[in-house]
Amino acid sequence: MYLLIEVAVNLAPGVIDRTLTFLVPPELLPRVHKGSLVLVEVNKQLCAGLVVDLIVDTDRTRLKAIKDVLEEKFLAPQLIELGRYLASRYFCPLSVALAALLPPATGRRLQRCWRWLPQGKKEVDAAFSLATCLPAPAAAIAAYLDSHGLVTEGQLRQFARRPVLTRTLALLQAHGLLKEEWHWRPAPRRRQQRWVVAKKVAASTVEALQKRAPRQATILEQLHKHGPQPAALLAADGGYAALRRLADRGLIEITEETLSEIEVTAPPVKLNRYQAKAVDRIKAALGRGGYFLLHGVTGSGKTEVYINCVREALAEGYQALVLVPEHSLIPQMVERLQHGLGVRVTVLHGNLPVGERSESWEQIRRGEVQVVTGSRSAVFAPLPHLGLIIIDEEHAGSYKQDAAPRYDTREVAIKRGQLEG
């Protein structure tokens, strides 16, 4: 009896538009699950692949075996099924659909490494003697590997350019001095959270900015109204250029603080009978499934219903996801949720720097986050105990993705709710 796996790889999706079948070596069997990230060889190229199905078969043994398991539980099984739904509903390859669920730069986190094999003084001396007989820079590379043990190929580029380095490493490997290995690079680390604090400015300064730099004026007004804000949130709509110009003019200060230092819990707002009825109906559906349309004009108190529903979900041990139609609305939603709930709210959207987005994705996947807010792509946030999805202004056209996979966020959210149970 052999275990086979169906693997989706996002390598040349125009050519590979289906899953590939691989054999699992016996030593890797305990580490392979649906949703594992594995190292496979496709067209003589090593790449990362996502396990989308497990198959027990007794006949097909003449298949390529996977090289290694990079992450045992990288994506939850229900998210794999959500990827299948995307591929079927919106007519795109499964690998392209699954790529929408993965953090940025997933494919670039695979790195080639070299391990020094000689052990003991006698073996090392013989290795050095052999290396000195080989073309340069073999001796220098051998000495460096001996002192470090395992190094990335990037670390060895200080000794020679790529063609020469490749030939030298092949020679050392052919003589049994090196072993090639592939490792999964840790997720990019984001820089410490930066916060923007407004300085006292005259009203005439803000009025002048409204005429020649309306985006800068909007940021200043928001800071004066709501207090310090994360730089990433303020830059979500128009980038960091406006923040840099305000800082250069001395109108704001960008500092580094922890989020918990400025969290404030606002007293609960008393709901009217219509709001309370909506909260009660949604609360009754937690853990059982269902979807609701909350109708109300601007200013009618829908956000207070959101906050109370999220509070109820958190009280029952669930996590919550709140979507907004535009990046520019994220800071306001974060401020309302944090002050209404007193919990950390994590932001996830496509305009975040790669390092910050990757780290946020990993924190969400590990269950360290209770509430996530963002634009349409946040519907794929890997919350392990998701119990509530809120789509603010769900009729907005911006909830429809115009690049593959071309999905409708409302439809995806409903399907995800069904899969999460």
List descriptors.
single chain, 421 residues, alpha+beta, five-stranded antiparallel beta sheet, four-stranded parallel beta sheet, 15 strands, 38% helix, 19% strand, globular
SSE blueprint:
Elements (H helix, E strand, L loop, with lengths): L1 E7 L11 E4 L13 E6 L2 E13 L10 E4 L5 H13 L4 H6 L10 E7 L3 H14 L4 H11 L1 E3 H4 L5 H13 L3 E7 L9 E5 L4 H10 L1 H13 L2 E2 H4 L6 H8 L3 E5 L16 H13 L16 H14 L3 E5 L6 H12 L3 E4 L5 H12 L5 E4 L11 E6 L17 H12 L1
Word description of this protein:
- With 421 residues, this protein is of the alpha+beta class.
- 38% of the residues lie in helices and 19% in strands.
- It is built from 15 helices and 15 strands.
- The protein has a 5-stranded antiparallel β-sheet. A 4-stranded parallel β-sheet has the order 13-14-12-15, with helices on both faces.
- Helix 1 runs antiparallel to helix 15 (409-420), helix 3 runs antiparallel to helix 4 (138-148) and helix 12 (302-315) crosses helix 13.
- The radius of gyration is 26 Å and the shape is globular.
- Which shape, going by the Cα principal axes? globular
Task: Return the average pLDDT rounded to an integer.
Answer: 85
Tally of helical runs: 15
In percent, how helical is the residue content? Answer: 25-40%
Strand order of the largest sheet: 2-1-4-3-5
**Number of DSSP strand runs:** 15
Outline the biggest β-sheet: 5 strands, antiparallel
Unreliable segments of 5+ consecutive residues = 258-264
Beta-strand content estimate: 15-25%
Distance linking N and C termini: 33 Å
Category from helices, strands and their pairing = alpha+beta
Radius of gyration: 26 Å
